[in-house]
Amino acid sequence: MQKNFAEMPKYIIMRNLITIMAAIGIAVVTSSCSETEKQNDKMSDSNIAIENIMTRTSVREYTSEPIGNDSVMILLKAAMAAPTAVNSQPWTFIVLRDMEKREKLAEALPNAGTKLTSSAVNIIVCGDTRKMLEREPEYWIQDCSAATENLLLAANALGLGAVWCGIYPNSERVETLRNIVNLDPNLIPLCIIPIGHPSKPREIKDKWKKENIIFME
Ligand SMILES: Cc1cc2nc3c(=O)[nH]c(=O)nc-3n(C[C@H](O)[C@H](O)[C@H](O)COP(=O)(O)O)c2cc1C
């Protein structure tokens, strides 16, 4: 039989109160989560970091404006902020301004070509065998690739233009670059990145393809 409130034992009243408060708590948390999700959805369209990722594109033509070492240091800090396996950071970055070497590289590496000389500065991203993981040294490729992408994104954020010019795993390109810049034998060049001020507006490619995704729900 249903008792009125005054007749209920104190422990039942307490239990009911706790149940009601828990239900209110869950409702508040759930509604604030969905609010946060909604806000995140809105933010993703206008978020400055996301926009920087979506507008990065390879830039191959540059003005003659120079790039100072302050900007180069920002690019290198961004590169070194990349994730690496076991935080090994197995890299060395070469900042190449020497025009004589760049001319030789431009001639010997047609895939990079005159981009190396028309840009303001080149950065060579190298794996460093002394810092690679003993058991899984091959992670250096992912690690240095992550650093390269960070560098390209930072360049875009600074209004600079850059392009990843592949060296490794093409052994001919590796040896050519090694000889021209007299590379330390512990270093393996992954890529060379010419960086300059873009000479024309960026042409952004739309690469979004929903069919590239498998949803497992
Ligand atoms: C591993 C790798 C190697 C690349 N090598 C070259 C290269 O040698 N020369 C070049 O002009 N671009 C090179 N690129 C740039 C690609 O051509 C470019 O990223 C691609 O066409 C997509 O264009 P986007 O960067 O403007 O989005 C390379 C990119 C990657 C990731």
The succession of helices and strands, N to C, reads HHHEHHEHEEHE
Query: Helical element count?
Result: 7
The main β sheet shows up as: 5 strands, antiparallel
Based on helices, strands and strand pairing, what is the structural class? Answer: alpha+beta
First-residue to last-residue Cα separation = 47 Å
User: Which ligands does the model contain, each kind named once?
Assistant: flavin mononucleotide
Helicity range? 40-55%
Overall form:
globular
The averaged pLDDT comes out at 88
Query: What share of the residues does DSSP label as strand, in percent?
Result: 5-15%
Q: Which residues form runs of ≥5 with pLDDT under 50?
A: 25-33
What integer value in Å does the Rg equal?
Answer: 27 Å
Counting DSSP E segments of at least 2 residues, the number of strands comes to 5
Architecture overview:
- This protein has 7 helices and 5 strands.
- Strands 1, 2, 3, 4 and 5 form a 5-stranded antiparallel beta sheet that branches.
- The longest helix has 37 residues.
- About 4% of the residues have low confidence.
- 46% of the residues lie in helices and 13% in strands.
- The protein has 217 residues and is of the alpha+beta class.
- Flavin mononucleotide binds next to strand 4.
